[in-house]
Structure formats: C-alpha cells, structure tokens
Amino acid sequence: MKKSLKTIVPWLVAVLIFVYLFSIYPPQKIWESLKYVKLTVFIPFAIGYFLFIYFIDILSMSRVLKRFGFEVGIKELIPARAVTYLMMVLNYAAGQAGFAYYLKRTHRIPLWEAFSIFFFITVIDLCWVITLAFIGSFFQNYQLAGVEVKNFVWIVAGAALFLMTLNILFWQGPLYKKLENKNWRLLKWVRSKDIFRIFKEATLRDYLKLAVLRLPIHISLIISMYIVLRTFDVFIPFIQILGNIPLVILIGTIPITPGGLGTTNAVMVELLNPYISGPLFERTILSPAEVLFTASLLWMFSNYLLKTVLGAFCLRRVSKELFNPLPK
Mind listing the pLDDT tens digit for each residue in 27-75? Predict the structure, then answer.
C-alpha cells in the first residue's frame, strides 16, 4: 500500500495541478496558441537539444564510471541510457534502478555502488541548479503569487554551501577523524556502506571535474526556453530567462509531482508573465500567460516524446531482461 501510494500520489497531484491550470487557460486557447509556433524551427531545435543533452549525460556518466574503476564505453551506454530514459518517463526512480541492474548484469558493478554513482551525479546537478538560481536572484525580485521568494533562494543556497562543505570535510577525513575519536558507531556504519563509496573516494578535483562536465546541460536548460519562446514569435529579455529559469528548475526538483510536471509549468508562467512581449499579441487576443503555458507544455511534451521514441527504438537492441531486478 505504501509503495503504491508513493507512485500514485505524485501523479494525482500533477493531474490536479493541470486540471487547475486548464481551468485558467482553456484548451481552446492552448490550441489557438499552438497554431503560431514555427514548427520548421521548433522541431529541429527540440531534436538537436535532446541529442546534445543525451550525449553530455552519457559522456559524464562514462567518465565517472571510469574514474571509480568501471570501464563502460560510450558506445555501450548509448542504447542502455536511452532505455532508462523510457523508464524515467513513468518513474524516475525506476529508470535509475533499471540502469543499475543493467550495469550489474553487464559489468558486475554492485547495485549499491551504481546507486552511489547516480547519487553523486545528482548532488552535482542539484548544486548547479541552486547555484544558478542564486546567481539569477541578483537580476530581479522573485515573486510567486505575490510572495517574495528571493530570501528563500538565498537560504537554500546558503544551506547547500554549508552541507557541501560539511560533506567534503567528512568524507575527506578532517571532520571524520575528529568525530571518530568520540567512537560514534553511526559514523562508522555510514562510511562502511557501498551507497556512499563514491563520496568516500571522491576528491575535490573529482567534484570540480564532474561539475564542468555537467555544466553544459544546465546552461542548455536555460538557453532552450529563450529559443522556444522565439519560435512563438514572442520575446523575453535573456537576463530574465537567466534569472528565472533556474528557480523554475529548482522548484521542479521538489518531489511533489513526477519530474516537476505541473509545478514547473505553473511557476514558469507566474515568473515570466510580466516580461513577455512580441508581435503575436498585436495580431491575436491571446494573453502572455496563455502563450507561456502553451510553450511550456509543448516543450515538456516534445522532450517526453523524444525520450519515449528513442528509448523504444533502443529497447529493440538491448535485452529487456538486463533491466529487470535480479532473481532472489
């Protein structure tokens, strides 16, 4: 029951958010907005963007695996990662678990060590999201539903910096050695677990190298929305995109809905609505909020569609059994 609720509740919340959003932005307005998108620009850009993110993800994954003693070539990761993308469309955790099982079956990488690598990459990604949101907070005042949220961003950024510093000091020795003298069994237990193996071995240089490898993904996430909106013949100053999109992504990481479905759409409209302009509004009776909501839906749908298509195609080249849980 508990396991089912963990899966169902986030999707239920996402559905309720979309019901609310569609009550504000009627489907006929969404359809009307879609008529103005330049598909000859949008489609090639969406495909190019997706493939770029896909390649950087695989490259960084391969480098991290190699750094910690597991030789898994990029060519081999291409179909495997695509299949996990397909699984992630429905459940992010299931996709990561499937990838771990694949690495276990093909390269005998222990499950918990594979999860440790994924966890390590996730921490770096989350740090980038928080850092970019913090940088963006200096370009404007954030307001959601009339509530100032800049202080929230600064608190999160400060907490992240503190925890990351604590994390490095703990795993690299100085802090742990001081605490070890107190004979805390919990600390010894934590350091003995495979799920934390990568953190125990990673140096500051490893953190920085992975951060550099993952940076193009996060920069692309910001730039992409600027270009997507241009395909609708509307414009938002890039400085506002730079300042607001990281906050949208940050809020989307809160596990309220799967992959930020609904929450990111609502927050994006709320934050960017005051800054949008363009010839489209002179020719139609569409509102800025309706166009923003439509653009966010189309961009979300295109990414999910590409993940599904590529994943389904690659699944034909990789045995399904490689992603299944190991027999007990």
Answer: 999 999 998 999 999 999 999 999 999 999 999 999 999 998 888 888 8
Q: 80-112: per-residue pLDDT in tens?
A: 899 899 888 877 778 888 888 888 888 888 888
Which range has the worst mean pLDDT, 104-113, 139-148, 237-246, 293-302? 139-148
More confident residue, 325 or 17: 17
Task: Report the first-to-last Cα separation within the chain, whole angstroms.
Answer: 22
CB 264 within 8 A of CB 249: yes
The HSE-up count of residue 245 (CA atoms within 13 Å, CB side) is 22
Beta bridge partners of 277: 235
Q: Which residues of 212-239 are buried (b: 16+ CB within 10 A; e: fewer)?
A: ebbbebbeebbebbbebbbbbebebeee
Segment 221-278, tens digit of pLDDT: 999 999 999 999 899 998 889 888 988 888 888 878 877 888 899 989 988 988 898 8
C-beta atoms surrounding 181 within 10 Å: 8
Are residues 85 and 310 in contact, defined by beta-carbon separation less than 8 angstroms?
A: yes
Q: Side chain identity at 257, as an amino acid letter?
A: T
